[in-house]
Amino acid sequence: MADKPAVVLVHGFWGGAAHWAKVVVELRKRGFTSLQAVENPLTSLADDAERTRKMVRQIEGPVLLVGHSYGGAVITEAGDLPNVAGLVYIAAFAPDANESPGQISEEKPPAAFENIAPDSDGFLWIAQDKFHESFCQDLAADEALVMAVTQKAPLSPAFGDNVTAPAWRSKPVWYQVSAADRMIHPDNERRMAQRMNPRKTIELDASHASLASQPVPVSDLIAEAANDLAG
After folding, report:
1. Cα–Cα distance between 217 and 97 in angstroms, integer?
2. Which of 16, 26, 92, 93 is a Cys-bridge partner for 101, taking CB atoms 3.0 to 4.6 Å apart?
3. Confidence (pLDDT) at 231
4. Averaged pLDDT, 78-97
């Protein structure tokens, strides 16, 4: 079997690269030695995609891009690089050309949509006292509190930025649906997954934060994708 591809983890809104902490530990236990987690500015899709591309360009050999939440839009936009071998979506947006995460959410609003609001500087926040029930209802209260207080708010326009050329149209794809997601409607996740024709789709009884609440099955899917690409 060929070497596993490098794994690059891409976070979404309301958190940073550390949201992948449990997945990082789990993948390292399984022998993944080339792991990177992008820290995106969350200022625009173009900025975030370029930040991700810069990390991917530093890696020799094939790369498996893994995106959570809005990070799915980022890997959709940035996954056109020639060394990107595949894409894994974890409760993530997978927009088509000329489609944005905001547009997808407005078509079928998620349960916690009303708990998101902009501040006077144009940053979108989840209300701290609603964060646990909105983003990660299957995590312990203390862990949710830390996520709420340390949330990384995106600039509002990033939510409406359209994908240009979706990489999933030309790269192998895997998808994880969170059946209890309150930040992206689960039916939207199922629809996005279905139209990409993934090599595998799994559905977890999980919140939006499945990468933190169910890191083992999430890592199972990433590992399966990596092994599939390694041949």
Report:
1. 30
2. 93
3. 82
4. 98
Sequence-ordered list of residues with C-beta below 8 angstroms from that of 140, at least 6 positions apart, any chain: none
C-alpha 50/C-alpha 30 separation (Å) is 29
Report pLDDT digits (tens) over 31-71.
999 999 999 999 999 999 999 999 999 999 999 999 999 99
Give the position of tokens 């056109």: 80
Percent of the chain with pLDDT over 70: 99
**Structure-token pair, residue 25:** 């530990």
Q: In this structure, what token pair is assigned to residue 116? A: 């998101």
Q: In this structure, which CATH number among 1.20.120.1810, 1.20.1530.20, 3.40.50.1820, 3.30.413.10 belongs to the domain 6-230?
A: 3.40.50.1820
Distance CA 136, CA 19 (A): 11
